[in-house]
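Before relying on records like the one below, remember that each one covers exactly one chain. Contacts with other chains, cofactors or solvent are not represented anywhere in the record.
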Amino acid sequence: METRELICINCPLGCMMKVEMDRTSVVSVSGNTCKRGEVYARKEVVSPTRTVTSTVAVKGGVHPVVAVKTASDIPKSKIFDVMAEINRACAEAPVSIGDVIIENVCGTEVNVVTTANMSKV
């Protein structure tokens, strides 16, 4: 039996949790003060995911870049590949919040979308 310790990142409480595992399956979670903590811990030790935030270059915009993020979590192991694709991307002004900049980034079935508006020059 393996024990993993982690700090919950779902709310400001930051509960210190212990996850008991039997090979690749979770046996128990303790230390969480809410159900979200347990869900987070189970997911984190078996298949960790993250939301990626960054910026993308904009042609013809009032600013050179616009803020973007993945529309939902992606596998943690794909972060560097996703960032490489984001760094190669370029949008054209005008840009609106929620515009899809990259569809199905790195085969994750998750889109990269803008989180800000950008006007033309």
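Strands lie at 2-7, 16-22, 25-30, 49-50, 53-59, 65-70, 74-75, 90-92, 100-102, 112-114.
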